[in-house]
Amino acid sequence: MIAFVMLLLVPLLFISCDKDEKNLTTYKMNLEYNDVEHTLTGKENVVYYNNSQNMFEKLYFHLYPNAFREGAKNKIVSQSHENEAFPNGNSYGNIEIDSVLCGNEKINYTIEGEDCNILAVKLVEELYPNECVALDIEFKVQLANINHRFGYGENTINFGNFYPIACMYEENVGFAKSLYHSNGDPFYSDVANYDVQIAFDSKFEIASTGELILSEKEENSTKNHYKSSNVRDFCFILSSKFNVVQGEVDGIAINYYGYKDDGNLSQCLSTCIDAVKTFNDMIGKYPYSQLSIVKSNFVYGGMEYPNVVLISDKIESQSEYNYVIVHEIAHQWWYGVVGNDEYNHAWIDEGLAEYSTLLFYEKNENYGENYENMINSATQSYKLFEEVYKKINGSVDGSMDRAINKFATEPEYTQCTYTKGVLMFDSVRELIGKNKFEKAMQKMYKEYKYKIITPEGLMAVFEKYGSGAEKVIKSYVEGKVIII
Ligand SMILES: [Zn+2]
Q1: How far apart are CA 440 and CA 431, in angstroms?
Q2: Domain count within the chain
Q3: Which of 44, 170, 456, 467 can pair with 137 through a Cys bridge, CB separation 3.0 to 4.6 Å?
């Protein structure tokens, strides 16, 4: 009987997987937000392609919302940010998986990982290289009252990392199932195609990944339909306080979402436009049709998602706000288009985004910042960090290429990835010259578009443009350079 069922199932399961030329996994989601309960119900159809050389019996998906549940192993934010993150006291969120189907058949799944952070799905049939399988996952998400990427606050409702997303598979390593950590962005995902419908209360405006295909607005409920290709994730933000201003640069729609009564909307929009223009010219063209820059209740400075960035509404000075806008927009190039393992090699996207921010200010003198001054202040900041840590601990670990959970504190993480990243790329530019440095960035963008760059890959690109670049990068990354 089982064998008979399997024989029938195999053609059914694989026939629906029309192979598109790039073999991208596709997520189709139907989402509905309940603003009273702060819950989201989701039906997710994943057509997963096995682009590896190996056969899979199981597939794995991250369940990031479970990091927000009561009793989770790792804290959501570092202790120093707790009060700001939870203005109304402790609050919890989670994700429940209601069912997983393959075709019409319910299939076995388990919630596993180090801390209920992984959905493991046992496939009905082995999945061989270049084959795909379609799964239907029903889930329900509970949002916490937290000023974070995933959570609701006083001003916005943020849906980052909210749905089951396939774990990256690496040849000879396996599926990357790293547990959430409060340091940095503990994420790592492949580019995919998205087709997402979101229903929400009509009192809200929405910012989202992708292109809006259709919006059906009724008195109480709005349903929007988005499509996006070649993106690493899907994020959306709701608010009844948004005031949206729109511009355009190089054919790309730029949407800035401020709040009603904000007096700086046009100023913020022009910073967004200047940043996209600068990076288009300096690195290579942003390949999507829109970018939304969204003010939101977010405990840190900002956060990047494909086609969407969050900027914290806690930032008071316009110059700091502009800085965060530029940094987060730079991530569209470094993280978004050129991907990397943000969990194990955070210095790649953070270092490149932060250094690209300095280059933005060098090219846009009207913002009143000076490149040399910024390098000097990064140097001073890093030196101070080393001095303080040496005093406290007797020694300091200045190595950059560590998993984010291997940095003892948040300052250690930020100094070793952002600040030291800036100093490292400045040293590389000193060595190979401004022109070749930009050529190397352009080459990296072209060669790794929609792919994953590793530390070795990054070093090899810069070495091509200037002998010795690899050695410089290595010595920084290994923590051997003495900052003076
Ligand atoms: Zn960043």
Answers
A1: 13
A2: 2
A3: 44
For the record, the structure tokens of 28 come out as: 């189709």
3-state SS assignment for residue 397: coil
Domain that holds residue 144: 1-148+160-208+225-233
Distance 327 CA to ligand 1 centre (A): 6
CA distance 240 to 260: 9
Determine the distance separating the centroid of ligand 1 and the alpha carbon of 356, expressed in angstroms.
11
Tokens of 257: 């979402």
Give dist(CA 476, CA 418) in Å, integer. 12
Ligand 1: distance of its center to the CA of 354 in Å?
A: 7
CB of 371 closer than 8 Å to CB of 379: no
Cα of 349 to ligand 1 centre, how many Å? 7
Structure confidence at residue 21 (pLDDT) = 54
Phi, psi of 481 (to 5 degrees): -80, 135
Q: How far does residue 414's CA lie from ligand 1's centre (Å)?
A: 10
CATH code for the domain of 430:
1.10.390
User: Is the same domain home to 229 and 366?
Assistant: no
Q: How far is CA 197 from CA 45, 123, 200, 224, 319, in A?
A: 12, 27, 10, 6, 36
Over residues 118-162, the pLDDT tens digits come to 999 999 999 999 999 999 999 999 999 999 999 999 999 999 999
Nearest-5° Cα angle at 90, 88 to 92: 115
Query: In the structure, what pLDDT confidence band is assigned to residue 88 with cuts at 50, 70 and 90?
Result: very high
